[in-house]
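Folding Query — how this chain folds
Tokens — whole-number codes for backbone shape
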Amino acid sequence: MLFPAWPCAPRRAAFQMTALVLAGVSWCGTLRTGAHEPGDPAHARQKAFRAAAMTYGVPEDLLLAVSYLESRWDANRGVPSVTGGYGPMHITDARTALRGEPPPVPAGPALQRVDEAARLTGLPGERLIGDPDANVLGGAALLAAYQRELGRPPTSDPAAWYGAVARYAGTDAGPCFADEVFAVLRTGAARVTDDGQRVTLPPARELPRVPEQNGEGRTVECPRGVACEWLPAPYQRLPGGKYGNHDLADRPRDQGIDYIVIHDTEATYAQTLKLVADPAYVSWHYTIRSADGHIAQHVRTKDVAWHAGNWYVNARSIGIEHEGFLAKAGAWYTEAMYRSSARLVRYLAKRFDIPLDRAHILGHDNVPGTVPSAVAGMHVDPGPYWDWAHYFDLLGHPVRATGGRDAGLVTIRTDYARHRPRYTGCGGAGEDCPPHGSASVRLHTAPSRDAPLVRDIGRKPSGEATYDVYDHGARATTGQRFAVAERRGDWTAIWYLGRLAWFHNPAARPTAVNTEGFLVTPRRGLDEVPVYGRAYPEPGAYPGDVPVQDVTPLQYAFPRGQRYAVGRATRGEYYHSTTLDPGNHRVVRGRAVYFQIQFGHRIAFVKAADVRVLRSDAAAAR
């Protein structure tokens, strides 16, 4: 429902209206809140949107949609996003958030909107960024100001606010930001926020479609409806006979693309663009900006970027960097970036026939080391705060149960907003991180929170596993599938890194769902099965001019009686590319078959000759 500006009192100064709204009183008396009781604290955020919309003559549903795209209505505990935005309306305050660090986008008013919001509302900046209700009011004031500057009246028709919404993005990608806001208006949304607020945006019944701003006929490889530009990574000869920073190929004609790897930048957008422009650095295919979901493409999808730390995965994947930090002061990922990323991944998955599951859509932290010495140094982004459940909802493939009560597989699925396990190390070593939703469950050696954590011998050959946010050796994450070993009360045991691992999975608040699929277990006669970090061909497959690549087992194995979820089957393959001249590049294919398994937090490979394949329901019946 749309609400016009208040009709029952004369105009007042902005600061007088603000004071009344924040006090919970309308000009006409007690604030009217619709279906919910005025004193219901769980709907305070919904009331704040209604009051702000009425105060500044902004359509309430439009204000809700803008805020949803910025923050999904979350307060984020007063912590800024990576772009220096605060609160449900993502009002930016670079002075406070960045503390002298380089800005994430070129300097300009969009990074310091709190000053403009303070002028419009009469509220101090610290309240606008620290008080969610004041933040919503500031966002409404900004939208109303942009509408006036465009010479448009404060109409109740959301479609008439398109230009103001585009300006709210604060970047050159404003039209695409506005397109996404109107997409939210059409579909509607409802959720409980990170601080327990129930907010609802009903779908719009009659909202005209705004023409999308971009098409697929551009030089960049991006879907319609997103802002995308071509900022190429250099491909040139370097001193010492080296070259960088990627390899030319002809995918998918010469080799398939099986994976999309999700990274975070651990740097600002501006810093990230400088890195990808360095010919001596590594490369990736796309970078997505936090403020508005703007996409920059650097490497053609047909070519191989150097992004995952595993050459086998590099040769068969597309790498996407997201502006953000795994743990820096709890900085959060914007909804605009999540949605733009999901659009891109859906487009790429359809184009290259990549299944939308966690066996093919990997985090950088799921990519295995290639040899034992490489395991400890593998990256751990995007980490436990990336909301995989929400991401797969946006991809149109939500994580759901597919098996019965006694299924032989479980898929991790936490209630992200309410699941807040302890992590340390976001600030100083050993210091507790701020409470934050997480997609990961903790794994113990016994069904007790007091039991030690499972230890990953590849990451920590000695010593105990820790709660450090960068130590993922005892974690399983939403979307990952594991074979069930045992169930005991509120605890479930899975096979993990060659041993039993327990996680808390109470029926009242489950952290996993039962699923079906295929498993592998050692074939008869084998006491244990080695696992590998890459699926390379057998020695006899290599031609004389291509050096044979060793197939080296990792420091792990799993014994008879254990089972692991199968993600895909593949024949061994190696992309030989050691010179600048693509005419010398070769793809070597073998006959040996491998199964990809979810072995620990990372995937791994086993030789088909070493294992038997079982259906999960058959395994559960044993």
User: Anything to note?
Assistant: The first helix runs from residue 14 to 22. Residues 117 and 192 are 26 Å apart (CA to CA). The chain has four domains: 14-201, 227-384, 400-516, 520-620.
